[in-house]
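Inputs:
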Amino acid sequence: MGFEIGCFYVLLKLVANDVVYYDFCYGLPSSSTPFADVDILLQVSLLRSSCVSESSFLMTSKTRSAHVSEAASSALTLAAITHICSRRLGNYTNSDERVAAEYEKYHLLERQGVIIGLRLMERLLYREPVFGRTSTDIARYVGYTMWKAIFGKKVDSIKAIDSTYHLSDNNFRWLQGFPQLKTSDCVQTLESSEDDGSTDRYTEEPVGSVSHRDVLLYTVGIIKGATHRLLGESSFSVTGTHTKEGETFFSLDFR
Amino acid sequence: MSSSAQRLASAVQLGNAAFDNNVKMSAEFLALTYGALVQQMVEELTQEDDVEHVNQQLYHMGHRIGARLIEEYSVRSGAAPCRTFTQAAEGVALVGLRMFLGVSAEVTQVKDAADTFAISFQDNPLALFVELPDGPLRECLWYSNILCGVITGALSLVGLQTEARFSRDKLRGDSKNEIILHFKGRERETFQVERN
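Outputs:
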């Protein structure tokens, strides 16, 4: 029901107003799986794309590259992450409840990142089409085009090992001001199914209600969203890692 | 050129220089991040018509952001400390908004009120690609209310107690965006420098 209402509303709006760009403020229908969210968002993106036509506005929009201070954008991003993390803070009656709440937080962080990434992809590809679809092309798109749009700079290095590309940022902007890791060698965003069972490596020191892992998960979501349409039928996984030495890298695995 | 006009021109120059010297990035990413945030807040409403709650959330979030950005403003804008409400309003409108958002704003004193100013601007980078649907959102949501929080949060860190609120919004069909900035007072200096 929610799905139908949501999609109907979008369609009605597009047809009624012949809107070229539209970003509705009513929520997407709730969904129990991240993939469904992405699929719905993709449908919306495609709907919007089909309405695009050449016009003076679009030409202006395409050529005009408005900028803002990176400091303001980073402040907003961290506030958005904090908003997600501060939800449902409270006393848990048992560890199961705590684990469930934590899982929901991680899901929301990545989902929100995916939403933003999907929309960013649309803007970036419109302005700078990516003609190749190889893993190298995608890694460069993330490390150069996407990083430039988000942080005003490129990643510091891209290293390929077999089918995995490691995009390294020596001073990741969104983790500046976070404490250095002490009890762990690194923090990663590996899915729980890939957890090697060791809990020590996930010991970290939250800053208020936000941890290193929270920031990494949000960024991983953006990367997933921003690359979704480039992948076609390929499988793809993204892992964020922050080390004790202060290096942050995102691994794109194309196996 | 009167001293007032000279000061205004100087503030505009400072704003432009501060913006030019920034690390800059895509305004689109800022707009998309903000849009997803507002959308999430609207989704979380337990009552659909309680849009004022979103306004308050945005304001409080902005207040915390402003408390962080004022440090960057102080260090990097080159603006002199504000000694009058007028100077503070000009700092916000002509330097701060320009430095962080690339916005060219105007500031005018509200008639017959020495402590109230109107800050108006045409382009709003937070509202790129945004259209509000008819209904409670269009009627009650001040989409960019986070800006009001940023302004009051920043000014509170330099001892100025203020209120800021949107009075016009292009997303609602107005011809421009306008924030009314009202100075309520100045806090007594609490930081004492020891003089030997």
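Remarks. The domain at 3-186 of chain B is CATH 3.30.1380.20 (Muramoyl-pentapeptide Carboxypeptidase; domain 2). Residues 51-76 of chain B form the longest helix (26 residues).
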